[in-house]
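Lab notes, practical 5.
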Amino acid sequence: MKIRSLYILICKWSLFAVFKTQGVRREETNEQRLVRDLLLGYDRRVRPVMPDNTSLPLNVTFGLALSQIIDVDEKNQILTTNCWLNQMWTDYGLRWNPKDYGGIKVVRLPYDQIWRPDIFLYNNADVSTYFSSISSNVIVTSQGNVTWLSMVIFKSSCSINVRYFPFDEQNCSMTFASWTYDGYQINLVLNTHEGDISNYISNSEWHLHKLYVQRNVVFYSCCAEPYPDITFYIHIQRRPLFYIFNMVMPCVMITLVALLGFYIPSDSGEKVTMGITTLLSMTVFMMLVAENMPPTSNVLPLIGIYYGITIIIVSLATGMTVFTLNIHHKGHRGEPIHPLLKKIFFGVFAKMMCVHNESYGHRSKVMDGVRSCGCIHNHDRQTINHSYDLKPENNARKINIPDIQNNQQTFSTPSSETVSSLEINFSKVLNKVCNTIDSSESRQRELDAREFVRHEWQQLALVVDRMLMTIFVLVTLFMTFAIMIQGPLSQEG
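Output from the prediction step:
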């Protein structure tokens, strides 16, 4: 009895399992059966072609949609992009009749279970690119049309031309072709002659100017067969506002500050210090430019040339500042300026530079003082002669001899010897006084002359400063204009 009950229970469970399995099969039978039949005996290692004509190439339609320009590495010359790939071909082993499978016309299959063309990026710059690709199922229609959609972050090599940095435009290319199949086995076909930028995300540094496609047939040295490829050209233009404010404007301002060093008075002692400071600042900014540029000697960037010439100008300006300081302090040695230099600088260049020359007025004052000092000795001599007469009788009249009441004595008229001795002593005293005045005025004349010479040298240094400042400003403007006319805008015009 127990055995019979156990047998009935087992039969019920078996019938329940069979009915349940049949019910699931009735729900998924068409797609399951279709996938099972498609992959049954399918060899993904073999190129899918017509069995009766295997010599015909398989047409593979290749398309690319640019989603984003991630980075442009100028130093390493690498372009990083995010692209959506669209590859379509016909697989004759994946055809079916929709009527046999409940009218199913499209099915999704895992991409790693069917044959795929080995189309690679020829100018790939990173072997880990394909590890960062995202692929889902492939879409297969009942006619055998296979569509494979994938998203890949490519790092492609790009020849960066930094000639016009930061006003440069770059034309980078991405070449796709089969690695092992030649043109007799796989024929690459364009789906459009213009790249797809409908899903493009704008870049803050680069402006996408154009994306166009071109098909090429190349014969390589390894093989005699042709290899067709599809090349996408990405024409981008740099947005220069960031670099103008961070590289170009500081350079211009530092140059102007360096040229204003000629306007600083020589007595301040800051002319050479300012030149050296501006030179160091310019060197720091040039190092920042060099960090972003590729280390090439074929093409020099215009901004690098501009920085180099500006450093030369600032260095020469600092050297000329030392020269003008030497001129400014040369008057302390008392060496006069050559008359020809006076005529050239004070007569011509001072008027051109609008420098008021005060040397001539100062010189007239000095000469008037010299002429007035020359008359002092004669005047003193006349004073001596009028103050004391050499005749004894006249001198006697001028001398009053007082009466002395106590002694009742009267002084006699002085003799000629006494008068002569008084005259000699008085003359000696007056001569000493006159010599003292003459020596004092002589020293003052020498000091005035040295001051006049020193003032002339300072005026000459001022004229030279203005001349050098004008010359360096004109050279800087000419150099800036000469570099700007070589820019991309002038080349296009």
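Observations recorded by the TA: Residues 130 and 152 are 7 Å apart (CA to CA). DSSP finds ten helices and eleven strands in the chain.
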